[in-house]
């Protein structure tokens, strides 16, 4: 999948100031607020929790329904586990113009792959530095967003039981997409007697003491959680779609950790049968099977839908052609470096809303979306991978940068990202503490000087 490069069209009108609602004060929401504010828009950020940081606000609390299928359940936003350290080096992960460097202050976590508390501190500092805190309405949940008769957006919100309604020119959706669990469909699961839990509700390994666990998935959380659980569990079997049928591999660094193919079926005596032909008796199935995009508050009259995890139609994953630029989404892409990508998406939205950068016509944007969907289909890429940018995130970032007249992605960031991915595969246990990318690290540090002085 390739991105077509062309220079941004010239500005059509002088900068305009809009009244903009941003939904969510996670990393996407706070950088959107900063960019919109910088361009002179009037910004209100709605945040249902009492602090900013979104995913990075760890809580030990879990949901009462461990696989998250009951729509009426109490929702816990963050999916972080207690031991979580970043899966990217801090230099790569940080915003482009606000480097995520060690502070060397007492009590702070100076590691290159720090724990989650350090990321939250960084986001707080960012917010404070750019005056974003003052734009956020904390403890305010957006319950409904729909268009009024004038084509403006009516935002209904609730703050500690009080309802409110306001009208905005534009809405930027930044509500995150790691809260609503996706569950694998397993033949026989309804009569399988064991426990089931989604990684959204995993916090620490103690509950798995002495248990036989089948963990489904192969992404970052699956890697971390399987290894952590194997320290206390009797056996951990990782069922992964990326493993060939008939293949069972013991993971050499552990005596009780196995990599297997997908589950074929489960049975009422507790048996779990794998595509590789093997059967085990398990106590728990732990789904590390990802999340669904979910916008329970958004009413676009079906102009924007979520179909098999495709949010669409969206021009370049941001603007619905029929509602652009008055509705936009920040942070939908995955298998990416989220903070700098959200920063560029936000710059683009802020520039378009101020009239400094123009969009193609609705028909041309729609044609672009259709062409993208057709190219996915032609390459047999499933619909649910619509926002998976593993193959082209830097092309996408650079396309956005060109639109806004910003510098392209730094060479060191690309190289460090690629080396980290390789190291993660080669040394999954130690990739966060042993590295060999000093050359790129020193280039990054030189680059940061201009932002730190
Ligand atoms: P969120 O952080 O989820 O923020 C959304 C915000 O919207 C929340 O504050 C929420 O309360 C608010 N909200 C939602 N609905 C409403 C509503 N109706 N009204 C008002 N407010 C609302 N990224 C990395 O760069 N490095 C990592 O190492 C990394 N590790 C990760 C590990 C895990 C387990 C997970 C789940 C994600 C990880 N990520 C990592 C990705 C991470 O999610 C992104 O970095 C980023 O934090 C997402 O930000 P966001 O603003 O899009 O969403």
From TrEMBL:
PANTHER family: DIMETHYLANILINE MONOOXYGENASE. The keyword NADP applies. This is Flavin-containing monooxygenase. Its cofactor is FAD. GO terms for molecular function: flavin adenine dinucleotide binding; N,N-dimethylaniline monooxygenase activity; NADP binding. It comes from Lithospermum erythrorhizon. Its EC number is 1.-.-.-. Belongs to the FMO family. The keyword Methyltransferase does not apply. Keywords: FAD, Flavoprotein, Monooxygenase, NADP, Oxidoreductase. It holds the Pfam family FMO-like.
């Amino acid at each position: 999948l390739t991105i077509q490069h062309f220079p941004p069209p010239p500005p059509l009108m002088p900068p305009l100031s809009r009244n903009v609602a941003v939904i969510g004060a996670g990393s996407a929401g706070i950088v959107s607020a900063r960019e919109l504010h910088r361009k002179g828009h009037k910004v209100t950020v709605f945040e249902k929790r009492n602090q900013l940081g979104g995913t990075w606000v760890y809580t030990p609390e879990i949901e009462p329904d461990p696989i998250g299928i009951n729509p009426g359940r109490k929702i816990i936003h963050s999916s972080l586990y207690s031991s979580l350290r970043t899966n990217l080096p801090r230099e790569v992960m940080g915003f482009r113009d606000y480097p995520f460097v060690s502070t060397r202050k007492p009590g702070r976590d100076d590691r290159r792959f720090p724990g989650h508390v350090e990321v939250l501190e960084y986001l707080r500092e960012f917010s404070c530095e750019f005056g974003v805190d003052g734009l956020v309405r904390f403890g305010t949940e957006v319950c409904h967003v729909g268009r009024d008769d004038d084509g403006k957006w009516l935002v209904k919100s609730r703050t500690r039981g009080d309802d409110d309604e306001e009208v905005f020119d534009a809405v930027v959706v930044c509500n995150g997409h790691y809260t609503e669990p996706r569950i694998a469909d397993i033949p026989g699961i309804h009569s399988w007697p064991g426990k089931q839990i989604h990684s959204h509700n995993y916090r620490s390994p103690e509950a798995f003491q002495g248990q036989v666990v089948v963990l489904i998935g192969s992404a970052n959380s699956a890697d971390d959680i399987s290894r952590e659980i194997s320290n206390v569990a009797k056996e951990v079997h990782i069922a992964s779609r990326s493993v060939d049928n008939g293949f069972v591999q013991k993971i050499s660094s552990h005596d009780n950790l196995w990599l297997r193919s997908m589950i074929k079926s489960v049975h009422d005596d507790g048996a779990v049968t794998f595509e590789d032909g093997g059967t085990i008796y398990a106590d728990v199935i732990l789904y590390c099977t990802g999340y669904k995009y979910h916008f329970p508050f958004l009413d676009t009259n079906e102009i924007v839908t979520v179909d098999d995890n495709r949010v669409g139609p969206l021009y370049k994953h941001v603007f619905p052609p029929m509602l652009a630029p008055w509705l936009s989404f920040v942070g939908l892409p995955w298998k990416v470096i989220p903070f700098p990508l959200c920063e560029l998406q936000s710059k683009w939205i802020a520039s378009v809303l101020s009239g400094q950068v123009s969009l193609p016509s609705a028909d041309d944007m729609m044609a672009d979306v259709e062409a993208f969907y057709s190219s996915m289909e032609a390459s047999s890429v499933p619909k649910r991978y619509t926002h998976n940018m593993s193959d082209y995130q830097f092309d996408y970032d650079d396309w956005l940068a060109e639109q806004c007249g910003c510098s392209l992605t730094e060479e060191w960031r690309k190289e460090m990202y690629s080396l980290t991915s390789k190291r993660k595969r080669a040394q999954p246990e130690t990739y966060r503490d042993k590295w060999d990318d000093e050359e790129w690290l020193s280039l990054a540090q030189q680059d940061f000087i201009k932002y730190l002085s």
